[in-house]
Amino acid sequence: MTPTRTRPARRRWLALGLGLAALLALATVMALRPATANALGYALPGARGLPGHFTYQGVTYSNRDLCAGDSSCAGARATRWAQADFVRQDEWPLTTVGAIPTLFGPAHTIYQPGNDPSMSGAGGPNASDARPFTLFLEDPAAPGWYYLYQRPGGP
């Protein structure tokens, strides 16, 4: 091989590498935007990173007061439930039913009330059709407090 042939090949590989690095950097920046997290239903790291909706068993559950830290959201007004609220309503302990991913952090566990009236009859012949009306995610900033997410139609 002559040096004149290897230089253009190296330049092409260098340009390709730089292009891929730029594309990866852009994808990372876009993924960290609250609007992207809300649109795709994943959480961002931090105390205010919970999304406004997520999908569980093919159904979208939402809380319009949460939005992965977006400044246009009313996160400070989002209703939280304490363990005592669940105990008072005979819905404690909560049951772990899944998790939503967090970008660059641990997943957030999805909880269902232990005695969920919307699930009465689940386990019968139509068990695959049973979907809870409400699910909860624990507040990352206040352990023991849970944000309510509802499916369309609500309880």
List the helices and strands and how they pair.
Blueprint: H1 3-31, H2 34-40, E1 53-56, E2 59-62, E3 80-82, H3 83-88, E4 95-102, E5 105-112, E6 134-138, E7 145-150
Antiparallel strand pairs: 1-2, 3-7, 4-5, 5-6, 6-7
Helix content: 25-40%
Number of strands: 7
The major sheet is characterized as: 5 strands, antiparallel
Tell me the radius of gyration.
Answer: 22 Å
Oligomer kind: single chain
Shape category: elongated
User: Helix tally?
Assistant: 3
Major beta sheet, strand line-up: 3-7-6-5-4
Order of helices and strands: HHEEEHEEEE
Beta-strand content:
15-25%
- Structural class label: alpha+beta
For the residues shown, what is the average pLDDT?
82
Structural write-up:
- The protein is α+β, with helices and mostly antiparallel strands and 155 residues long.
- Helix content is 27%, strand content 25%.
- It contains 3 helices and 7 strands.
- The strands form 2 sheets. Strands 3-7-6-5-4 form a 5-stranded antiparallel beta sheet. The chain has a two-stranded antiparallel ribbon with strand order 1-2.
- A hairpin with a 2-residue loop joins β1 and β2.
- The radius of gyration is 22 Å and the shape is elongated.
- 22% of the residues are buried.
Question: How would you describe this structure in keywords?
Answer:
155 residues; alpha+beta; 3 helices
In short:
This protein is an alpha+beta fold.
